[in-house]
Amino acid sequence: MNLKTFLLGTCSAIVIAGFAQAETLTIATVNNGDMVRMQTLTDDFTKANPDIQLEWVTLEENVLRERVTTDIATKGGQYDVLTIGTYEVPIWAKQGWLLPLDNLGADYDVDDLLPAIRSGLTADGKLYAAPFYGESSMVMYRKDLMEKAGLTMPDAPTWEFIGDAARKMTDRAAGINGICLRGKAGWGENMAFLTATSNAFGARWFDENWKPQFDQPEWKNTLDMYVKLMNDAGPQGASSNGFNENLALFQQGKCGMWIDATVAASFVTNPKDSTVADKVGFALAPDTGLGKRGNWLWAWNLAIPAGTQKAEAAEKFVSWATSKHYLDIVAAKEGWANVPPGTRTSLYNNPEYQKAAPFAKMTLDSINAADPKNPSVKPVPYVGVQFVAIPEFQGLGTTVGQLFSAALAGQMTVDDALAQAQQVTTREMTRGGYIK
Amino acid sequence: MARAVSTRRTVFFTIVAWIIALVIFFPIFYTIITSFKSETEAIQGFNLIPSGTVESYQAVQAQSNYFKFFLNSVIISVGSTLIALLISVPAAWSMAFSPTNKTKDILMWMLSTKMMPAAAVMVPIYLLFRDFGLLDSRFGLTMMLTMINLPIVVWMLYTYFREIPGEILEASRMDGASLWGEIWYVLTPMAVPGIASTMLLNIILAWNEAFWTIRLTTTNAAPLTAFIASFSSPQGLFWAKLSAASTLAIAPILIMGWFSQKQLVRGLTFGAVK
Fold first, then answer.
1. Same domain, A101 and A59
2. Which among A413, A415, B43, B102 is most buried, taking Cβ atoms within 10 Å?
3. Residue A262, SS3 per DSSP
4. What is the pLDDT of residue A406?
5. What homologous superfamily is domain B65-229 in, according to CATH?
6. By three-state DSSP, how is residue B13 classified?
């Protein structure tokens, strides 16, 4: 072997080794149970794709949002797959920050995705994110306490009924609060609940000309009802309670009713953590007879940032993680009750899932009842049931949420909170160029 | 009589010191207690008696590779401290023993950089890291933490060096010591308590830095701060697991602080009593 042959051979080996080297996908995600479970089940994917390795970055929701936004906006290219919410998808797709998912594979069956969820992830006819799990909101209630109060929960209750039932179920001496609702300030905390609820009262954030509507009677009715109900039948210190705090209260048997994310159904019916697991009933989010229910629509989705150099491998992973096949893997290893809910029609037609998840029908009905494009009674210029899909909403929602949380805590009146919300929102929307 | 007053005063100040120490230590203590509770117990309200379960530790271990994060924390905090000392010792020497009329201004300017909110320079720093290929690299993060803590290190060393009589250095010069010889063989050994405490404090600061270490890393260089951050959950109870992760993250630095407390106190009080 002469030197030339040796060098040629070495170079070829290096080139081949380079091609054969596995691609590593960096996946940014949040620490939700379903996401954590996925990290333990990826062997199936890596076995089928030995040339792809997976690295996970798990962060708190708001830190993740901030980090991913910085990385995408500066084209940092740190991530190949992102976990993002329904709020971000249309905004980021419009900015050109996400790649359309055109090659999810022949057997992906995109038409199987729940229409309400799919429409929230579609911009200009293209799917920009694939749903990993979806949720709406619904009423979770204690059947035993409802019976004790001499009431029967209808499948589709009104706010009037909920208010009446909450007051009757309240037994302060026994530590039972008739109702637990979110009070912690934040666009994704109390404002998710209150924005969705306001739809049922005919309120909206903006009119067709982006003029804020907090000075309208519909918002006053919403906030009045909420504050009075929570004062009469809510837990102490409710202005600090978010999803997790209310979950703990409900699991400990301290709430008669809880209106929150459908995903909570699997937590409150799990006998390992919940003391009331066998006493929980479900109903649609309440309305006021105006034709809209206060149930939101949310999904955690997997998307591919435009800056990635590994788009093909990333799309392969997204396709696998959001496929019917993945649901089968979870069912086989963890049981049907632990399958990520709210994304596929076929799951809700599956008798095994229906049997394992008593909340399946109510979850599906709640998701189907949400209409992000026409969330309220009156027309709106935005998309989103519990949020307004504009970049300014995160800041605005949190500021208004702080005012409403203060009203709940008794630090200001409902009228003052609404007047300040109107003032702040008008100022920011004028600055943002929405109001000319 | 004077002795009685003095004893009473000593007892009083000892009690006050203990109360302050307990107040300061209580959050850490409660974090450790919470880490031995179940998730349901952890959110039930104030309770000092845990059930003693270690399920949170098991869950944390199953979910993350602790030692990878730990190793990154060690490399980044020790590395940044050593580099900061390498730069700061000559800088502080120069300011302490050859001051000019601008020395005070320079020191104040250095300190003023600490007053800038980190979020304000987030995007420029991120762009610099991106362009120099430093995102998610231990080297990049080490340099970042060096820069962040440099003003404090310089200030601390400057304060210690000022306590050393200049005549000793002059004598070494007269004996023919070179500039580096003067710094390394005369000044440094005399300032060992100060340098040691500065080093320990800087390691603690670098170990606990959470803004940049979370934002400039993804997988390779992520230290224990990122490890802790990964256990906060928007949907699902997480306080016990978060407490277990926090306990695991602070344990090494607590142990280090425990063993080096004499050195740390000696250094921090160096020159305080003449």
1. yes
2. B43
3. coil
4. 97
5. MetI-like (1.10.3720.10)
6. helix
Distance from C-alpha of A386 to C-alpha of A408, rounded to nearest angstrom: 19
CA distances (Å), A159 to each of A162, A166, A216, A287, A293, in order? 5, 10, 19, 6, 10
Does A404 share its domain with A327? no
Report the domain count for chain A. Answer: 2
Which of A339, A356, A373 is the endpoint of a domain?
A356
Of B123, B136, B231, which is closest to A31 when you measure between CB atoms?
B231
User: What backbone phi and psi angles, to 5 degrees, belong to A238?
Assistant: -65, -20
What is the per-residue pLDDT for A19? 46
CA–CA dist A256, A280 (Å, integer): 10
Which CATH number covers residue A386? 3.40.190.10
Same domain, A390 and A272: yes
What local confidence, expressed as pLDDT, does residue A4 receive? Answer: 61
Residue B176 falls in which region: left (phi positive, over 0), alpha (psi -120 to 50) or beta = left
Name which of A54, A60, A338 to mutate to probe chain B: the one with the most chain B Cβ atoms within 10 A of its Cβ.
Answer: A60
- Say yes or no: A268 and A191 in one domain: yes
Interface probe, candidates A30, A34, A38, A57, chain B, greatest B C-beta count within 10 A: A57
Where in chain B are the domains? 65-229
ipTM: 0.77
Do A269 and A123 reside in the same domain of the chain? no
Q: Give the tens place of pLDDT for each residue, A302-359.
A: 999 998 999 999 999 999 999 999 999 999 998 998 899 999 999 999 999 999 988 8
Domain check: are A266 and A178 in the same one? yes
If asked whether residues A161 and A58 sit together in one domain, one would say no
B64 chain-A contacts, CB cut-off 8 A: 58
Asked if A261 is an interface residue toward chain B (Cβ–Cβ < 8 A), one would say: yes
Nearest alpha-carbon partner for B29 in B54, B12, B14, B46: B46
Instruction: Flag residues of chain B having pLDDT under 70.
Output: 1-5, 267-274
Domain that holds residue A65: 3-135+298-356
Residues A254 and A273 in one domain: yes
Q: What is the pLDDT of residues B50-96, one digit of tens each?
A: 999 999 999 999 888 899 999 999 999 999 999 999 999 999 989 99
For residue A365, tell me if it sits in a domain. no
Taking 70 as the pLDDT cut, the residues of chain A under it are 1-21
| Residues within 8 A of A (CB atoms), B 14-53 only | 39-40, 43-44
Task: Give CA angle at B272 (B271, B274), nearest 5°.
Answer: 70
